[in-house]
Amino acid sequence: MFTEKRSSMLHGVLLIALFSCAAFYIGEAQVLKEISFSPMIIGIILGMLYANSLRNHLPETWVPGIQFCSKKILRLGIILYGFRLTFQDVVNVGMAGIAVDSIIVAVTILGGIYIGKLMKMDKDIALLTSIGSGICGAAAVLGAESTIQTKPYKTAVAVATVVIFGTISMFLYPIAYRSGWLDLTPQQMGIFSGATLHEVAHAVGAGNAMGQEISNVSIIVKMIRVMMLVPVLLILGYWVAKKAKSGMNADGSVQKTKVAVPWFAVGFLAVIGFNSFDLLPVPVVDAINYVDTFLLTMAMAALGAETSIDKFKKAGAKPFILAFWLYVWLIFGGYMLAKYLAPIWL
Question: What is the distance of C-alpha 201 from the center of its chain?
Fold first, then answer.
């Protein structure tokens, strides 16, 4: 019985792995490379296409394998994501990038939660959308989803918002800079881009379109934002535990709520620390990053496979309205911080 259950679970995992392979293959298309459409985004689209077409024909015994990908494999992917970062990156960009990033992350997340409350939005979707906009797009949404354990369709909705507005910015920033609409030095533009673009891929794409000097600063500032995912997840884990209603013991006393520490976030930080010592050859790190992207793509495809159009309709337009206001803040707030705050430390 156990062997049969394990075999059925493996079928679900292999199905998602095939989606991930397809996402990598499709991602090789030149047009998708030019707009920095990562395999992760393609993976969730493929998963959603499947969810809204052939999903009902899937044996129920395969479902645990899909859920394994959206939970366990996701956490492993987040931990290995640390191989893209080093603490030296923080030192290289200095206090200017750290200060701007800190304000952007804090205001975006707290402001998004507050706006979501005013709009009477689903709290989980508002939180995921805010964290995705504030930190690093899809990867941040996935990290937060693993901490609050919400429904897959809510994660897919949040990911959709950051993909849409992040892609717009990736094309808008180079045009605005080269047209002279943004009165920023190359270093300030790098800080502005890294502190406000949603995905790492967006920061790379936009930075390369504006020149090497801007690109280098932009990517480092973006990576510092990624590092801020760790304290945000730790705070989020504590907040979720405190918010959970405690039950009553038989003697009438209140049960103590255990704080669930997102250990994958600690693992993510530990990997960054290890990678900072530069102990592994570059080809090995590149191989790990490739495998990590594959694992995260599997997680995205699994989340997409649990997301139907009906659930998007259920979420309504509010998540996209919230993402739009956060996008407005990122552009105007980020510009003011890069122009007037960053020079204090440059």
Answer: 11
- Tell me how many helices (H) and strands (E) the chain has: 17, 0
Region 306-315: what's the mean pLDDT?
73
The whole domain housing 103 covers 2-52+64-241+259-344
User: Would you list the DSSP string of 76-108?
Assistant: HHHHHGGGG--HHHHHHHHHHHHHHHHHHHHHH
Q: Which amino acid is at 67?
A: Q
Q: Quick one: what percent of the chain has pLDDT higher than 70? A: 90
Where residue 222 falls among pLDDT bands split at 50, 70, 90? confident
Any domain includes 333: yes
pLDDT-based confidence at residue 250 (cuts at 50, 70, 90):
very low
Closest by CA to 214, choosing from 228, 197, 230, 229, is: 197
> Hey, what are 188's tokens?
């300030």
The Cα-based distances of 174 to 31, 136, 207, 291 in angstroms read 18, 20, 8, 31
Tokens 């689209």 sit on residue: 45
Distance CA 38, CA 40 (A): 5
Q: Is residue 254 part of a domain?
A: no
The total number of structural domains that make up the chain: 1
Closest CA to 100 of 324, 340, 260: 340
Nearest to 322 by CA among 108, 155, 167, 88: 108
Q: What is the pTM of this model?
A: 0.75
In-domain check, residue 253: no
Half-sphere exposure of 61 (CA within 13 A, CB side): 10
Task: Read off the pLDDT band of 241 (50, 70, 90).
Answer: confident
215 domain-assigned? yes
